[in-house]
Amino acid sequence: MEKNPTWTCVVALALCGGDGRWLMHRRPQNKHHGGLWEFPGGKVEIGENPSLALVREIKEELGLQLTLEELEPVGFAQEPPNATTAQLVILLYKASWSGAPIEALEGGAIGWFSPAELVAIDMPPLDIALARGLFEKALD
Ligand SMILES: Nc1nc2c([nH]c(=O)n2[C@@H]2O[C@H](COP(=O)(O)OP(=O)(O)OP(=O)(O)O)[C@@H](O)[C@H]2O)c(=O)[nH]1
To answer: Among 2, 30, 73, 108, which is least packed, fewest CB within 10 Å?
Structure first.
């Protein structure tokens, strides 16, 4: 069997506001996938638990202090494995937020979208799959 040991685990958050809209983060232009909208989150560090990594990333990116109990796993998506770059595997969690307004603390922008709006914005390929899975029931 062919071996492909290099992969990167990314954790991401589908955050639902009190009005049923979902938060997305627009990546700064100078980064990989610059200008595209993604679920906030980031890479899991070596030896780190995925949900704790997401709590850390969300605190850094949005200033929100989530608890592990608030995070519900809702799906994952992965790139096809390839020999030249580490395969991205994204674990998506869901949580709700109705507290203070949120800002993007590390650059880029945030926006809130209804499910129908969210599936129409510019996203990387894996986010299209994640968003479809997230809203499968709601959009049927
Ligand atoms: N956070 C996040 N990253 C995503 C999503 N979809 C997707 O393809 N990615 C990609 O996954 C990678 C995550 O890297 P990142 O740059 O957000 O993570 P990080 O802050 O921990 O890493 P860094 O410090 O190396 O920049 C990027 O290549 C990003 O474009 C998504 O929905 N959320």
So the answer is: 2
